[in-house]
Write a structure and sequence with these properties.
There is one protein chain. The protein is mainly alpha-helical. It has 3 domains: about 300 residues, no CATH class; about 80 residues; about 90 residues, D-Maltodextrin-Binding Protein, domain 2 (3-Layer(aba) Sandwich), CATH 3.40.190. The protein is built from 23 helices and 7 strands. A 5-stranded mixed beta sheet has the order 4-3-5-7-6, sandwiched between helices. α17 packs antiparallel against α18. The longest helix has 28 residues. The chain starts with 6 loop residues before the first helix and ends with a strand.
């Protein structure tokens, strides 16, 4: 049945994944708000040799717990402070996420299902993009994935070692992003326990040991940061960045219930085009226990973040490895001849490989700062050409070759987009375009809101002012300072007799960054 797949195929897939995640990892600038704040926060902690209190611009940062800062600090020690180092462990965990998805799905299904599951993740543009960022989500995804797989193994095989590994994984996930790392996996596991009547594995001293292990790993830092900040970090994180994000849309990231489902569908391209067939053949697809459990995980994460008022594409991503297993098991049936050859998925992919480059071309033509690069996305039409080449041989190939070819075609597209198009476009951001000016000034001020990317490249604090009276006083003391602000604040600054020295629109955002100096 699995004669199509050979172990060497997975080795080649891992090599492809490593290339996709590590090649030109440091080319794109640190510009996206979350990347900039996370990367700089880790640097400030390293400079102070502080393992407790996260700060950005020397001010307390309550957005996230501390785990990803530790990894970035280690990378800075090894590689120096740069874009690649900030993202290095994110990429490494992306490789490990695919590897453990393969090995656990192989353990509980079969090698072909495992390989196809890994194939789904390796081809996913969203998965690759997220694991090339200096953000906490790669750490959360990896440790939740590891925790769920090992906890599932404990429930299936009653092996205490896997429960201990699950406890350590969930504890580290909690240090990556907070209580959601326990709540949602806990809901998934309790649902599985209820369905399978495995209560004897819950009401045991082993669970008490696991809970104690989680507490021993997580509580010391949470208590230490609470004490060090007089409770300010605790209030900011648990109230503002957890309860408020769930109850009210934050930073304009709202939307209807279906938005999260759309995020997942787009995020699992190219193989998400087969989801219609998955639902049609659900009885055969959801036969193995691991695939059923994967369905529970996907439903739990998608439902929770659909209900949440704040909606972002990365929120439901911990369910991606489990969605990949569902798709992988369908593809296994398709490959072994248990399903008909439906051509509409490949036709959808062909359409997307044309639409996406031209949509990006259109978007860039309306972006002031990067309009001169509007033809760059059209190079990704190489993916469409590769897909057409595949179509000419489609009838001659086995279903296994067809599935492999989809991954290869989409990898051509991903290579052009992630390694060349994205870095080229984001080099046009206002931080990169004005750094040569800002570096000439010893004192750097900011009025109200400014782009946090400046901090990473300046390696010094930017003193921020919220009113013109204080700013004017500071300028009188340091008339050679430069002020970073937004164009919207020009009226406020008109009374200070300033000269505008630069103005650049923030890429794909509404604000415009403006730089001023004293006349």
């Amino acid at each position: 049945m699995n004669s199509f797949y050979k172990p060497s195929h997975f080795k080649f897939l891992v090599a492809l994944l490593a290339f996709m995640l590590l090649f030109k990892l440091g080319t794109a600038p640190i510009y996206i708000l979350d990347e900039a704040k996370n990367a700089q926060c880790a640097r400030e902690m390293l400079q102070r040799n502080d393992w407790i209190v996260p700060t950005f611009n020397q001010e307390l940062r309550t957005d996230k717990p501390v785990l990803h800062y530790y990894f970035m600090m280690a990378a800075y020690k090894i590689f120096g402070v740069n874009e690649m180092a900030a993202r290095f462990f994110s990429a490494g965990l992306g490789i490990l996420t695919v590897v453990i998805t393969f090995f656990f799905s192989k353990r509980f299904t079969d090698p072909l299902t495992a390989f196809c599951s890994a194939l789904v993740l390796t081809a996913s543009t969203h998965f690759l993009f997220e694991f090339r960022l200096s953000v906490p989500d790669p750490y959360l995804i990896f440790f939740i994935t590891t925790g769920l797989f090992t906890a599932y193994t404990y429930l299936q095989e009653n092996k205490f070692l896997y429960l201990l590994i699950a406890a350590i994984s969930f504890a580290l996930a909690t240090l990556a992003k907070g209580p959601v790392a326990l709540a949602l996996p806990g809901l998934c596991l309790l649902t599985w326990i209820f369905i399978k009547r495995k209560w004897n594995l819950v009401f045991t001293w082993k669970i008490l040991v696991a809970v104690a292990l989680i507490a021993v790993i997580t509580l010391p830092w949470y208590l230490a940061v609470h004490k060090a900040t007089n409770g300010e970090w605790t209030r900011g994180f648990f109230i503002d960045h957890n309860l408020n994000r769930f109850s009210d849309p934050q930073e304009g990231h709202g939307g209807i219930f279906l938005v999260t489902i759309l995020f997942v569908l787009i995020g699992l391209l190219p193989f998400a085009t087969y989801l219609g067939e998955v639902f049609k053949k659900s009885k055969s697809v959801f036969t193995p226990d691991l695939v059923k459990f994967s369905g529970i995980v996907v439903i739990a994460f998608v439902t929770f973040f659909s209900i949440s008022s704040t909606k972002l594409p990365n929120y439901p991503m911990p369910c991606y490895p489990f969605a990949a297993i569902i798709l992988g098991h369908y593809l296994r049936g398709y490959i072994t001849g248990l399903g008909n050859d439906k051509k509409y998925p490949i036709y959808i992919l062909l359409a997307l490989l044309v639409v996406i480059p031209f949509a990006a071309h259109h978007a860039l033509s309306h972006e002031i700062e990067a309009a001169h690069l509007k033809y760059i996305p059209l190079f990704s039409l190489a993916g469409f050409i590769a897909a057409l080449t595949v179509m000419f041989s489609w009838k001659k190939w086995s279903n296994y070759s067809r599935v492999i070819s989809i991954c290869i075609v989409w990898s051509v597209f991903n290579t052009i987009i992630l390694h060349f198009v994205y870095p080229a476009i984001y080099q046009q951001n206002p931080v990169a375009k004005t750094l040569n000016i800002v570096h000439k000034y010893q004192e750097v001020y900011a009025y109200k809101i400014y782009n946090p990317g400046y901090n990473f490249y300046l390696n010094k604090p930017v003193k921020r002012f919220s009113n013109t009276a204080e700013l004017g006083k500071a300028l009188r003391a340091n008339p050679s300072a430069i002020i970073i602000t937004r164009k919207d604040n020009a009226a406020d600054l008109s009374a200070l007799n300033l000269l505008k020295v630069a103005e650049h629109h923030d890429l794909f955002e509404s604000p415009t960054t403006a730089l001023y100096v004293a006349r």
